[in-house]
Amino acid sequence: MGDLTHALISLASAEKGRARSRASLRDATTTVAEAILDRLRTGDTVTVSEAGSPALKAVYRAGRIRWQVSQWANWDEGNWQWSDPEVTLLRNDAALIDVRERNIDSRSNILRVVGSRIILDDGHAFAGQDDEDDEGPEGHLATDAERLAFAAEAPAVLAAFTALLDSEDRAFADAAQTVAKLTPR
Q1: Residue 126 CA: distances (Å) to CA of 102, 136, 137
Q2: How many whole angstroms separate alpha carbon 67 and alpha carbon 75?
Q3: Which of 22, 28, 40, 64 falls 20 to 30 Å from 12 in CA-CA distance?
Q4: How far is residue 29's CA from residue 48's CA, in Å, rounded to a whole number?
Q5: What 3-state class would DSSP assign to 132?
Q6: Number of neighbours of residue 90 by Cβ within 10 angstroms
Q7: CA angle at residue 144 from 39 to 54, to 5 degrees?
Q8: Tens of pLDDT, residues 119-130
Q9: DSSP 21-77
Q10: 3-class DSSP state of 178
């Protein structure tokens, strides 16, 4: 019986350690994703090789998402609406930052997050819940596996976004200089 008790105590200890490490991973990846997102414009996109599979590519972008919200505690299938869009850092179709806590709509109504659906909002005309065909592609919150991949890919993601911003900086500066030469004095 003592061996079984020891094994159960070991299992409980391992479970607590995993839960702590999982929470640390979520916090760390959210912090890094927020720091990256703070420097981007909506739509900025880079592609990097996936960690462990260089032939596969992961697309990172500053993209808008919407999710299901309701003013009512007892919501049902017909008693919800899509949130206002919020920008997050996406890895493929996975939101690395859970922006759903920002649940106040444009009319200053406090809204509860309901359901688990997330829609990627690419800026097209958004009809909302009444037009199922015009909602946009499905997304989801990043899984632990996707967060582990982001942790491994983060240096490449930072380098790719830095290169993108440097390239745009040069292009804008060159264009401004060209136009400035055309300005009458």
Answers
A1: 20, 8, 12
A2: 14
A3: 28
A4: 17
A5: helix
A6: 23
A7: 70
A8: 888 654 444 444
A9: HHHHHHHHHHHHHHHHHTT--TT-EEEEEETTEEEEEEEEEEEEEEEEEES-SS--T
A10: helix
